[in-house]
Amino acid sequence: MSPRNFSLSQLQNIHTAEARLLAEALKPDATFNRIEIAANMLRALCETGQRGDAANAAQCQQLLYILSLSDDVATASTRRWLANAVYSVQERFMPSADLASPLSEAGFQQRLEEQIAAQSRENHPMSQYVFEGKASHEQLQVFLRHQWFRTYRLYRDAADLLVNLTDVDEAAALARYLYGELGEEDEQRSHPKLLAKLLAAVGL
């Protein structure tokens, strides 16, 4: 496994006090106090970012990205704990749903389907531009590179969520999704591999 995808090696290339604090928290001998200092730093970055500080918002997202996409198994628990510090702040700033009264289960399902349909990738102007064959080779590369970074580890997100579910029906539904995401009986048809082949075909 290449160490270039480890958090520590990525953080060492970012010359900020925040990156150094995070790197110290991920060292094997880091104390809980050191980790809590890093968590408080992330909370403060996220808080000010959510309140309009664009630079802090960008830095928080960069550090969260590194924490989330590292391949270093040894730091997995610490990285998840630090990422949760950011999530707890982000959740406080989520806008409330504009609903006059609570929805029934069927109504909630319908609301979800409406929201998904309204924001479907297939209906997005960029997707339509690409599907209609209007995109240049360079534009297609940018589009597909974005798709790669957005989805190539979706199976890991699903697996992380799956192991934290306590309701067996919810876990079963997500397991079926994960089974399809990973190609069902043929791992060569897993979505990350198919997307990688597509990128290779367009020179990425």
Structural class: mainly alpha
Total DSSP helices = 11
Amount of beta strand? under 5%
Shape: globular
Intertermini distance: 21 Å
Q: Percent range for helical residues?
A: 55-70%
Low-confidence stretches: none
Mean pLDDT: 89
Order of helices and strands: HHHHHHHHHHH
Description:
The protein is an all-alpha fold and 204 residues long. The chain has eleven helices and no strands. The longest helix is centred in the N-terminal third of the chain and has 19 residues, at 32-50.
Features:
204 residues, 67% helix, globular, 0% strand
Summarize the structure.
The protein has 204 residues and is mostly helical. 67% of the residues lie in helices and 0% in strands.
List the helices and strands and how they pair.
Elements: H1 7-11, H2 17-25, H3 32-50, H4 54-69, H5 76-92, H6 105-118, H7 125-131, H8 137-151, H9 154-163, H10 168-181, H11 191-201
Helix pairs in contact: 2-3, 3-4, 3-5, 4-5, 8-11, 9-10
